[in-house]
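Reopening this ticket.

The earlier resolution said the output was attached, but the attachment link was broken on my side. Pasting everything inline this time so it's all in one place.
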Amino acid sequence: MRVATLAEVKNYFTKFIKMCEKEPIVVTRNGKIAAVLEHMTDDKLENYLLERSKKFNKMLDGVKKQKGGMDLKSYRKAKGIKLSENQH
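Inline output:
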């Protein structure tokens, strides 16, 4: 994992976008962590957004209580949501 200052990332943004394809880049501002640049593909984006959705997580918590627990893969299967090849 590489660490870079915000100034470096601003000045060489394209370079850092390419670099984060190989490893995450921790971006610091005034010596403190401000962000992380991480490579994202279309098939990973859905999971990324769902994992961070308060509404979705609240709904999953309700399902877990009702059914005694259900992970995301099981929920998708139960709802007929197909996964791309990279999400299996």
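Reporter confirms the inline version is readable. The chain has a mean pLDDT of 84. The chain has two domains: 2-37, 42-81.
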